[in-house]
Amino acid sequence: MLNSKQRAYLKGVAANLDPAFQVGKGGVTPEQAEGVEKYLIAHEIVKVKVLENSLMSAREAAEELAEATGSEVVIVIGSKAVLFRRNPEKPSVSQNL
């Protein structure tokens, strides 16, 4: 679990990120979850955008992706969500956590 200071730090890091994945009307697919998993291994933090034609809300998509990848939802604002999972072998973002 992230505490409020860690969450605030990660929000600041994520502010400069562009969405790396999009969730469309098909919802969260296993292929997307696998892609997010690989991205988290490399970068520890990922921003996801939920398109307007999606049948899921950004919160629902974020929770589903977090469950599928073992990550935590940092924040959901509008149609975007940020997920984080620490990489114990090669921390990049989490060096400051």
Please, could you describe this protein's structure?
This protein has a single domain (4-87), classed as Translation Initiation Factor IF3. Helices cover 38% and strands 21% of the residues. The longest helix has 14 residues, at 30-43. The protein has helices at residues 4-14, 30-43, 58-69, and strands spanning 21-23, 45-50, 72-77, 80-84. By secondary structure, it is an alpha+beta fold. Helix 2 (30-43) links the parallel strand 1 and strand 2.
What attributes characterize this protein structure?
4-stranded mixed beta sheet; Translation Initiation Factor IF3; 21% strand; 3 helices; 97 residues; alpha+beta; 4 strands
Question: Could you give a short description of this structure?
Answer:
The protein is of the alpha+beta class and 97 residues long. Helix content is 38%, strand content 21%.
